[in-house]
Every structure is written in C-alpha cells, then in structure tokens.
Write a sequence for this structure.
C-alpha cells in the first residue's frame, strides 16, 4: 500500500478546504444557523412538540443531516472533478497509487471535512436550541457513515461530470429535495397514510430517522433498517467506483 | 547498454474505432536520450500515455526495468516521471506545495533538502511560495518538470517540452536534459523540432499514423533527414551545365535560369564554397543565392513514403 500517496492526496484535499475556509466551513455553518433561527426559534415557537421533543430540537438532526449530505457530496465531487478539469489528473493516474488508494485519499478527506463541519454545526446549534444526545456514540457512527457514503457518491458524481453544471445537478436537484422531503422538518407520521408509504421510497428518510434516534431515542423507522440502508447505499457506491477504476470509465481513454 | 523500457505489440484503438497505435515494438536503452518524432496526431502522446498509465492499451505488453506495467504497476510507475505537453496544473497551489504533493503521491518520504535543490536547479527556489497562477508560462513549465522529478525517477518523459517556449528557455531546458542524462536518467522526448532531436538525442524514432516507421541512431538518421538545397539564380540563363560541373547533387532548372544544389547539413563541409568557386572559374555569374531546408513535415512524408 502506498501510504505516502494516500497521505499526499488526503492532506492536499484538507489543505484545499483550509484555503477556502469561507466556502468550506463558514458558509454552511452560517446557512444552517439561519435555519435554526428561522425554523427553530421563530417558527418553532408556534409549533407544538413532536414526539415530546420541542420543534427546535426536533429539526437539529435533520438539518445536520442536510448539511452532511450536501457538503459530503459537493466536497468529494469537486475534489476529483478539479484535477479532471485542469488536466492535472494525469499525475494521479500515472502515480503508483491504486484506485482504492485514490478513493481513500479523496473520500477520506471529504468525509473528514464533513464530520468536522457537522460537529461545528452541532456546537453552533447549541447557541439557538436546547437539544440532547441520547446515544452519542451511535450519533457519531451515523455521522461518519453518512459522511463516508455521500462522499463516495460525490466522488462518483465528480468522475461522471463533464461540466460544472453537471457537478451541481445531483446535489441540488436530487439530494437537497430528497432531504427536505425526508423528514428533516417533520415526522413522517404527520403525513397522510398514502404519503407515508411514498416517503418510504426516499432513502434519506432512513438516514434522518436513524440519526434522530441517536439524539432522542425515537424514530420513524427502526434504527436497524436505517443502518442497513446506509450499508446498502455504501455498498452500491463502492461497487460503482470499483467498476469505474476497473474499466477506466471517464478516467482513462 | 541494457534496455530500461520495452514495448511489445502495443496497440490502441479508441472507442470511436480510431486506431491510434498499431503493433508498437520498441526498446529504450538505459541512460539514453530518445527522441520520438512525428507530425500532429501521429500517436506520440497516446504512446506516452499508455506507458505512464494514463491511457489503456488495447493490446501489448510494457516492461519498465523488468516490472510489467500491468502486474507490477507500482514499481514500474515509481521509475517514471512525466512532463505533459499541456500546462496541466492546479494554479491555486504554491510551487512548494505542488512538488511536495508530487513526491508523496509517488510513494516517497518527505525530503525537503532534495526538493530545495531541485527547485534551485530549475531556478524556482525564489518562487517556492508563489502561487502557480502568478508565474510566467516558462516558469509553469519548469514547475511541471520539478513535479515530474520530485520522486527521483530513472525515466523522464518530456512530451514536447519546448513547444511554445522562447529560445532562452528552450536552451535552458536542453541544458537541463543533458544534466539529467549525466545523472543517469533516461530521457524520452517527443518533439516537432528536428534541431532539438539533432542537438540532444542519441537515437530517434519516427512515428506516423500510429506506426513506428523507424528507430535509428541519430547520426545515421541525420544524414538522411538533414538535407538542404541551395538555389543559385544566374545572371544569364544557360542551356547546359559545363562538363566539370556535371554531378548528381547539382541540377539545372528547366528554364536554365538557376542551379539547384543539394547537400547535407550533417556533413562538416557543405561544398557550397567549392561550388561557387567552380562557377566562378567556369565563367558562370550569379545574381542571388537562396537556401532552403526541408521541413520536418516534408521529411516525414518522404520517410513514410519510402518505408511504406
């Protein structure tokens, strides 16, 4: 294994986040804080408790998940798309690093950034909302697994994209809507029965539900199902990336 | 001299059906400077891409210092440094960070002393903290060279290293290539410039339409390639050459108004002054002289036609 190679990619990507700290950290923290203020403090005070949890506290896991999903995807996709765009990908491809090592470097860095960002947002949320974490280790595990899984997805998007527009399409047109409709701001039990069933087709429901369980011990779906869905999604992403590196799709002509 | 790089039956057909390389067999000797010449689209960059792992070959086998590039890609790639044709680099990086990254990527432990010396050798040390976007085109190209050398490769590929660079930088690069060869690095360069190959290479390969047309010692090839013609515009037309001037390398134009003399630039004595003296003594006066060197394209065409 080329440890120096993995470290080089990992540190390079983390350094890129540090270089663009306003975009990487400050901007998502600010926008999520605005959600807490608007939905949690302003609107939340007029909404009754959900499952015995104040509305402000109820939306913390969902909002955190929203940020983790979008940031993991965009961080990882941008990380691998930029070398493709500038042409400097030649160096990665000609280096003695395997596909798995490239993925560990890029996805590891993107997931690390997302987890750090998630923890910062969690601390920031404390300024606006009084929440508790019933299962902190589970919370951390959900956070890391979700960041890794969606960084893998982002990496795939970055490999696939041929333009900056394509790079943005899936995070903005698919992931963000699915997260909003995945129980970020409400419990799916609040929906009519028909829409409850339709919502179960949304994979983000399982992520938000499992994450919320780690905070408050209550969930829309069983926590085991949530974990299974994350594992399934991760397996699909790893299989797709393995295929990309074995065939050279969009990487090697 | 042993071979450091061997290509056997390398073939590349793109998904579009375009056959970029056909059955390339080539051996590069350890420590030599090998120049790969060919017109645009000949397959030079594709060939380098396949050796370096950037392009997938359709068929064939490549061995780098006894390491197969497929089965033992780590050891094979560790030995190779590549300077691409385009200025493909993240312009937001600093010079130091980008060479540091390259060294790590190729599996080498940090060695700041080596990188410092490398940047000094390439006149980049003063700019080590500068962002690449702030550098001139020539300096950016030097950064690419520094990146390729950051892991101390034994084989260096230079894909048209002097394309679009000024004369001064071109000479600096030639000096650097010679210095690297002196340190034992095998150099493989592609170029359009015949003088570049002539000045530096030990051996020359000519590739056209994906086929390796020939591989020859430079001196042998230069005799074949380095042809020039001298046109002597006569003051008065003549009907035929005097007997003492009748020779294979001298022709009288159809209109009798000029003489065309063919000679080789590889020869130490071109024979031009001797010819002019002979004209003088034969009482043939001339009003102007014009010299013309065959362009590389013409040479390629003639070579390709000959070898086809």
């Amino acid at each position: 294994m080329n440890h120096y190679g993995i470290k080089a990619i990992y540190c390079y990507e983390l350094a890129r986040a540090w270089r663009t700290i306003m975009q990487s950290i400050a901007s998502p923290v600010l926008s999520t804080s605005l959600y807490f203020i608007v939905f949690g403090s302003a609107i939340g005070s007029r909404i009754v408790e959900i499952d015995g949890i104040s509305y402000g506290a109820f939306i913390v896991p969902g909002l955190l998940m929203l940020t983790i999903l979008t940031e993991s995807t965009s961080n990882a996709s941008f990380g691998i798309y930029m070398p493709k765009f500038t042409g400097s990908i030649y160096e990665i491809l000609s280096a003695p690093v395997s596909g798995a090592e490239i993925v560990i470097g890029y996805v590891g860095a993107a997931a690390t950034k997302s987890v750090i960002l998630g923890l910062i947002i969690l601390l920031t949320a404390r300024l606006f909302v009084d929440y508790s974490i019933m299962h902190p280790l589970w919370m951390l595990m959900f956070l890391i697994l979700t960041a890794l899984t969606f960084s893998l997805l982002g990496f795939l998007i970055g490999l696939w994209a041929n333009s900056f527009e394509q790079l943005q399409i899936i995070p903005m047109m698919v992931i963000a809507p699915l997260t909003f409709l995945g129980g970020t701001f409400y419990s799916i039990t609040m929906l009519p029965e028909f829409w409850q069933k339709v919502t179960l087709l949304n994979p983000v429901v399982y992520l938000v539900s499992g994450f919320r369980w780690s905070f408050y011990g209550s969930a829309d779906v069983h926590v085991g199902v949530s974990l299974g869905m994350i594992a399934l999604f991760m397996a699909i992403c790893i299989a797709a990336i393995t295929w990309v590196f074995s065939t050279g799709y969009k990487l090697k002509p | 001299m042993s071979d450091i790089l061997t290509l056997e039956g390398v073939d590349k057909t793109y998904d579009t059906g375009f056959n970029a390389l056909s059955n390339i067999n080539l051996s590069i000797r350890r420590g030599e400077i090998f120049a790969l010449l060919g017109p645009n689209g000949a397959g030079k960059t594709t060939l380098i891409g396949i050796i370096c792992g950037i392009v997938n070959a359709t068929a064939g086998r490549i061995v780098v210092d006894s390491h197969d590039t497929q089965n033992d890609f780590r050891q094979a790639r560790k030995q190779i440094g590549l300077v691409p044709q385009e200025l493909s680099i993240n312009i937001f990086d600093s010079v130091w960070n980008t060479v540091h990254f390259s060294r790590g990527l190729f599996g080498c432990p940090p060695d700041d002393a080596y990188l410092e010396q490398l940047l000094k050798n390439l006149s980049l040390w003063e700019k080590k903290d500068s962002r690449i976007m702030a550098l001139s085109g020539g300096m950016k190209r030097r950064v690419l060279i520094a990146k390729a050398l950051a892991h101390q490769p034994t084989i260096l590929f230079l894909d048209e290293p002097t394309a679009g660079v000024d004369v001064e930088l071109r000479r600096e690069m030639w000096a650097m290539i010679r210095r690297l060869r002196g340190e034992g690095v095998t150099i493989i360069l592609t170029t359009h410039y015949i003088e570049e190959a002539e000045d530096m290479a030990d051996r020359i390969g000519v590739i056209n339409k994906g086929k390796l047309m020939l591989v020859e010692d430079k001196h042998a090839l230069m005799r074949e390639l380095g042809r020039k013609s001298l046109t002597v515009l006569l003051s008065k037309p003549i009907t035929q050459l005097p007997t003492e001037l009748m020779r294979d390398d001298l022709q009288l134009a159809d209109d009798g108004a000029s003489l065309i003399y063919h000679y080789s630039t590889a020869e130490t004595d071109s024979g031009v002054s001797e010819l002019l003296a002979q004209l003088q003594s034969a009482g043939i006066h001339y009003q102007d002289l014009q010299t013309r060197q065959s362009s590389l394209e013409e040479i390629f065409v003639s070579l390709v036609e000959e070898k086809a």
Residues 55-86 of chain A form the longest helix (32 residues).
